Write a sequence for this structure.
DNA sequence: GGTGGGGCTTGCAACGTTGCAAACGGCGTG
DNA sequence: CACGCCGTTTGCAACGTTGCAAGCCCCACC
């Protein structure tokens, strides 16, 4: 009697068959089995069929992915690192849009997408999942420069493309990373200039988190200067320049920070901001969900939008029907561009830097300052 | 002089360091390095620190995922197989909702999610990506029973949970798969009964694809009987029973098939259906996007909804503001339940079967039949 | 002082695959 | 008839890690 079929165990435990078992069953060498799957043309049709028959009899469905990538050094997957919980990320329309763009570029290559979990609750703690993900390259989406995830990701020494943040030059981000983003300063400047041109002088800004450990509340000059999140930092700087160019002192502008980018967070921050600076007539929110929260808060206070309060959002991620004046940025294109840059790096090219265009989209949430 | 640091090559090519290189640098054995990372408590604090220092000097950031999973048999990732292009999947609110539920359950375990690409254009062709994905288990989302993807997925012999379709009992789906779904017949029955109770007698149905190779157009009894997609098959059957229970012959009900579940597809199908059966006063759409397309088509024909035409959707996936009467199903919960079932299978339990509840949600798109 | 035990560390082997170069055999040509 | 070439097949080794059992050393106890 022959040895047990399948890579038998001393215990007689039957494991899943491998190339060796198939080879034995087909009466060929393991190399030939490998060839049948990986270079079909180099094998005789007859032999190929014999091997495939043996494989299907044994229930062998192709090489084990782990063994294959150990040996070949390729996994056929791209990793996407999103700062928030996966569940939250799928809630964020901007993130979903970005992922669509990633898919646009990854699908044709038959590359899988690995969404790597990274709790915010675990900021500070070592994130093991990121080191365990079997991927050929990494897409880092809007991380904060001092986030330990950045170090953990970069430590993998994989081809990496950073989206939006940390900006090139931020600590830890090597020259070798690719980068895709927008001109945050210019975009924010356009938003504020729009408000100023409508006659507004008493501005408020609803910011995103300025650092990994930041919490909601008023933002002073010191914490603005210390911001490690390059996206809000750049936008605040652009807003400041535009305000000052219009003769509005930045110290007169109330800046409030939101913990995360969602409607509720924006609503709470708006109440805080308007309590603190009651005369505010225009608000620049650094994301659309936050802007929608601002609109809701305004309604709760009996303020009409845009009659009493003008609001500008950012991203243009909300469905158009929401009538929000906002800064449009090509989110899907961003995902596509980032993925294409990563694919080029996988092919051996250098990491590239891409800055995508933005534009102000005027809808119904802003209006000229009403004569007081 | 010592041998090259790092797993040197004869060519002097410096590769990424592995446990062996770190062990050599720290003057310990590879096993100890492995222990430092995998069982820190079993190693002396002093030795641990020495090893970690050597590791960081060499730029070693932990075990290679491929080698680790080859050796350990675990990948730390769950695969999600969606039939459509990734980009399209992220467009589908129901799919995104489902993925959120998956994340809810996968996040706490620090499991990554691998979204496996599977073009519809490649239906029929062997999908290599599915065999290459390094995952511990598979979630099959709404596949059609005769889809080659089902065979490719099941061939992996991994713990698998099927969502919605193929239903248990469909060809190829083994007893060992877990299953999570709803009672399609009852749900569809509730929708049709609602319309009938409003007095409607001339019904139309906008169906989803009945098989992998189906194309848009009128559906006759034969193709209904031959449907390999268990979701629309079950719903059509439920609709038929409810109609017949109300004394409406199923042959009088126009059934139109949509290629995919989106607004445009629903719009086109509605025009076709109303051209064919002009007297129709109520439409049951098997998904919300299709229902929204029906509403748009109605508007284009000058029909008021619900005045001239009542519409019921399915899923309750559209934002509530859309005012659609629909069948609610707990999509997010579905993702969560499926993932939890998969986790239990990974822990050695049997595959389970879960049927989640649905309910009719009456909003503004249905109304009593207007007196003619 | 000898022996037993416990806590650390290590050697070995195997996880399943594939690239490479060598071996093989058949056929056409000189 | 011999040689050489080409198309196929094969043997070998290594990819990097980790579980296991054995070995080591030191301390405590008798």
């Amino acid at each position: 009697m022959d040895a047990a079929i399948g890579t038998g165990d001393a215990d007689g435990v039957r494991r899943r068959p491998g190339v060796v078992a198939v080879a034995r069953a087909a009466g060929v060498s393991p190399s030939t089995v490998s060839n049948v799957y990986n270079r079909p043309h180099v094998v005789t049709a007859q032999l190929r069929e014999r091997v495939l028959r043996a494989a299907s009899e044994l229930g062998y469905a192709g090489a084990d992915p782990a063994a294959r990538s150990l040996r070949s050094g390729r996994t056929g997957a791209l990793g996407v690192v999103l700062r928030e919980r996966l569940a939250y990320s799928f809630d964020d329309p901007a993130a979903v849009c970005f992922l669509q763009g990633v898919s646009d570029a990854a699908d044709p290559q038959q590359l899988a997408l690995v969404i790597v979990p990274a709790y915010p609750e675990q900021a500070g703690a070592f994130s093991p999942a990121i080191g365990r993900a079997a991927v050929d390259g990494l897409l880092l989406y809007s991380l904060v420069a001092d986030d330990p995830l950045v170090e953990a990701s970069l430590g993998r020494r994989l081809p990496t493309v950073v989206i939006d943040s940390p900006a090139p030059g931020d600590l830890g981000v090597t020259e070798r990373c690719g980068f895709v983003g927008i001109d945050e300063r210019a975009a924010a400047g356009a938003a504020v200039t729009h408000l100023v041109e409508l006659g507004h002088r008493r501005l408020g800004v609803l910011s995103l988190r300025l650092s990994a450990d930041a919490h909601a509340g008023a933002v002073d000059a010191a914490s603005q200067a210390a911001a490690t999140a390059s996206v809000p930092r750049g936008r605040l700087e652009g807003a400041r320049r535009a305000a000052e160019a219009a003769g509005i002192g930045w110290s007169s502008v109330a800046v409030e920070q939101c913990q995360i980018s969602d409607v509720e967070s924006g609503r709470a921050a708006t109440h805080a901001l308007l309590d603190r600076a009651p005369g505010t007539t225009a608000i620049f929110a650094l994301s659309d969900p936050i802007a929608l929260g601002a609109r809701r808060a305004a309604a709760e206070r009996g303020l009409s939008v845009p009659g009493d309060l003008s609001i500008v959002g950012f991203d243009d991620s909300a469905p158009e029907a929401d009538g929000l004046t906002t800064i449009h940025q090509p989110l899907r294109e961003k995902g596509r561009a980032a993925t294409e840059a990563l694919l080029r790096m996988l092919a051996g090219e250098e990491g590239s830097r891409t800055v995508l265009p933005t534009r102000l989209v005027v809808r119904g949430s802003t209006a000229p300052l009403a004569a007081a």
Q: What stands out?
A: The longest strand of chain A covers residues 77-82. Residues 180 and 354 of chain A are 5 Å apart (CA to CA). Chain A touches chain B through 52 residues (CB under 8 Å).
